[in-house]
Design brief:
By secondary structure, this protein is mainly beta. It is about 0% helix and about 45% strand. The protein has a nine-stranded antiparallel β-sheet with strand order 7-8-9-10-24-20-19-14-17, with no helix packed on it. A hairpin with a 4-residue loop joins strand 19 and strand 20. The chain binds 6-O-phosphono-beta-D-glucopyranose (BG6).
Length: about 300
Amino acid sequence: MTTNASAGKATPEALGRVTFLDGQGELPMLEISTAWSTAEIYLHGAHLTQFKKQHEPPLLFMSQCSRFTEGQPIRGGIPVIFPWFGAREGLAQHGFARVKAWELKEFAPAPDGSVSVRLRLPDYPEAAAYAAFTADYIVTVNQSLTLQLVITNQSPDAEFIFENCLHTYFDVGDVTAISIRGLKGVSYLDKVAGFVEKTETSDALRIASEVDRIYQNTTGTVEILDPRLGRKILVEKQGSASTVVWNPWIAKARQMPDFGDEEYERMICVESGNVASNSISLPPGGTSTLTVKLSSETLK
Ligand code: BG6
């Protein structure tokens, strides 16, 4: 099914469009096209697997070895990590939201040519361990990509404690050539060094080995400067106190069954959320909104 926006004064070429398709593994997928860009979202995990501006390489890295199977995470794009981040004894890493089918609640091509879709996490048995909550994910596609994860505590009397993270894999020309700016002076947990707490000293972080860091109490914009693709990526966020930077490098890449041995060279994860000491405690009736805007420009 395809739908075009018809309201408003947009010129025909500015109308946004949503097409419903069977994606890889026959998983249901939404293909969005606007005058500026295209995007793909799987209902499985509410997982964005693509955002591409016209005349630009894809913004998001996708592994050629990714699984597209119920119950398994997709490798690449933007996994939605919720309600926990990282390992939990006896439970799957990074929460259940990324391996469950979400429901499409609304899609709205707007008169200005943007397209927004709203997905909701259904009430799965795994949620019973928590206070009653709703989780909505609103994706807006235009010249940039805006993501909002809205969590509401629906319980009349219980606190809801959770972590969230939009685990974004960016496509880069050569990971050893990029610089990541915006984290200088921020303290981080270095997972590669056994969660030792350190402080970022670099104005322009370079990647030359495995990196797995949880930057804490940081709300600022992060920039990825990519001289090989001639592109600067901006990661702007609100309602997020943590930034995670991850590249598995050589040995870890080889251990991952759903990731190519050399693919670490073409990706960097810069993830925005609220994890570890920045986890969220929502009072009864409270709402938390994590907003991330991803955009790119030519590197001067
Ligand atoms: C990162 C974590 O966010 O995700 C890493 O900090 C982890 O420790 C990586 O290896 C990938 O996780 P997964 O579960 O998708 O393989």
